[in-house]
Design a protein that fits this description.
The chain is α+β, with helices and mostly antiparallel strands and about 100 residues long. It has two domains: about 50 residues; about 30 residues, no CATH class. It has three helices and two strands. The radius of gyration is 20 Å and the shape is flat.
Length: about 100
């Protein structure tokens, strides 16, 4: 992203980014672009505001997209299964611990 240009109101920019970051919970397609524009919250420029507004336009055009979790139907009941493994200080020379996890929905 271009870093030249006039500064914009940081408070307004932070409001936009905060709102869109909240939507990333149900809209993973936004995560990358929101992560990029979140880097410039301290000193946002016109080019950063343009990208933030472009994200809002994208949201307006894809309002019906998202992840929906159905509730209550026994034949389509969702089940979350998680596995976790850890090895505390498994490497005796440098005392590094190893952990891993995976979840299935």
């Amino acid at each position: 992203m271009e870093t030249d240009g006039q500064y914009v109101d940081a408070t307004y920019y932070k409001r936009i980014i905060g709102s869109v970051r909240y939507l990333c919970n149900s809209r993973p397609d936004l995560s990358y672009s929101v992560g990029l524009i979140s880097r410039y919250m301290q000193d946002p420029k016109e080019s950063h505001m343009y990208v933030a507004k472009r994200n809002l336009k994208y949201l307006q055009g894809t309002i019906s997209y998202g992840i929906l979790f159905p509730k209550g139907k026994s034949d389509s009941e969702l089940e979350l299964v998680g596995y976790f493994d850890s090895d505390w200080c498994g490497d005796k020379s440098d005392r590094i611990s190893t952990t891993g996890y995976i979840f299935f929905l």
